[in-house]
Records
---
Amino acid sequence: MINVTGLSKRYGGYLAVSDVSFEIKKGEIVGFLGPNGAGKSTIMNILTGYLSMTRGTVTIDGYDIIEDPEKAKKKIGYLPEIPPLYTDMKVREYLEFIYDLKKVKFPKKPHIDEVLKLVRIADVQNRLIKNLSKGYRQRVGFGAALIGNPDVLILDEPTVGLDPKQIIEIRNLITRLGKNHTIILSSHILSEVQAVCERIIIINRGKLIADDTATNLANKLSKERALFARIICDEENMLQTLKTVSGVKSVRSMGKVETGAFEFVIEPEQGKDIRQAVFEKVAAMGKTMLSFADNTMTLEQVFLRLTDATDEELENMLGDKGEEE
Ligand code: ADP
Ligand code: MG
């Protein structure tokens, strides 16, 4: 359904997207996960034809976004990070305006009615957009994206700025829409992506660094079998000391995880059991270990690990990436 090959985008001298390739099949719900500034919105703007690429190709259902923009764009509903709502319009009026703008062919009234119903805003259709809550406004944005019945929905951080109840409503909406749409959704929040997406593409500093199911990502990285130690201590001092323990290959801090306590990821040299040595070292320093586990990495840990790894580390961790298809 969506094919992206060798996509790069340069803003002046700055390379915001670098050689990104992926494919999304019909009916998939894929999450774009990455920290702020990673390049997610840039890629989405290129996919939807709002921004030109510096290099690479994008096709939507076989239509090249540059050579056949009209046909490609008809396939896509786009919810930008900040939907351009005309707040002095009434909800229905706005959707009718979008209908005209998109030059939709099928009968107007039943189509608008259907969209209003789908995103559950029929009850506010005659209210001014500016008087709606943020959650409702976001649903109007979804409605606009759905006008014309596009197969593909591209949603840029669809829950940013919403309260927890509204977030759940929007998530349910996405899950419902996922039953008969292909969806790409971006977020810098892992739980967000995990809640609705089957597949995760991690973008960092303009590069695609992982493309897999959440479970596979966690499994691949757990090959390292790192230990997770949560210790009440001085971060830097503990980091340096743990590195001196015999059999320890590397130590990283995941930062402060609760008051006074830091979480360290300790990687053993191949085949070494370092549990006792680490435990004794921490005890000898008079520090308290709150938890100590060699569990599989949570997706949160996978995400942090991937986004701060060097290119060489990524190669080691995800060595088979790109050879799957
Ligand atoms: P994300 O959506 O992942 O937060 P963006 O795609 O918005 O990331 O931005 C990626 C990088 O490109 C950032 O460093 C951002 O500052 C830069 N950038 C985005 N838009 C522009 C622009 N119009 N001109 C110059 N730099 C830009
Ligand atoms: Mg963005």
Note: Residues 321-325 have pLDDT under 50 and may be disordered.
---
Amino acid sequence: MQRVVPKKRFGQHFLKDLKIAERIVETIPADVANILEIGPGTGVLTQFLIKNPALNLKAIEIDTESYAYLKEHFAGLEVYAEDFLKFDFDRIFDSQPFGIIGNFPYNISTEILFKVLDNRNRIPFFAGMFQKEVAERICAPSGSKTYGITSVLTQAYYDTEYLFTVSEHVFVPPPKVKSAVIRLTRKETQMLPCDERLFFSIVKTAFNQRRKTMRNSLKAFNVDFTEDIFAHRPEQLGYEQFIEITNLIKNKMN
Ligand code: SAH
């Protein structure tokens, strides 16, 4: 019996609805000059991106078959046949800022987001398609069920917009879940007014025990938690309040 060898997947769900592809491309604000597209596949977004001559477009695509297709159909386009997660941003756009767009590979969508957060000094704009659940988590306001580490860390640096929900039927093959298009626009201040490492560690520690009050989950920091703000559970606090807590703890530690 002949064995069917499964094609390597790389989280591939190709968009077949051109209207949605166009709407994703339209999320790019006019002041963004450089754009990196992650995972163009067979170029459903790319064909709209190249229509804008003002955009300096580059792409990164890990799949060799898709890469060959892109080289054939988009002759002038610079495509890196590489893994976005390992890609060194020093190599592109001459240290200039750049935006990122894509219908992202769902198997690594959170890693992509965290790489963007790590490189926020270069990336004023980030938009595209995620699984609906991940999109909701990124954009969730405090107090909602999906609000968590991802929401706080993203919202500390970016204004987040949940733009629209996308049905699984506009992809080949259809994913098991619904999708959504979101947009992140970097905030004016790129440095938080607190010790950022401590901020990260407080956010992570607090949400690891999201049912507990801050006072209880942050015990390991070994300071006194007299202020009222520590009586809250992490999901009730916005990133501004995490900054406040970071500064309180920092002062108590000194
Ligand atoms: N943009 C296309 C394809 C989306 S599917 C469309 O909308 O139809 C996700 C794409 O990301 C695939 O082409 C896949 O090969 C690519 N990809 C997956 N992992 C990647 C990685 N680590 N780095 C770069 N591209 C990746």
Note: The pocket of S-adenosyl-L-homocysteine is lined by residues 10-15, 38-41, 44-45, 60-63, 66, 83-85, 102-103, 105, 108 (CB under 6 Å).
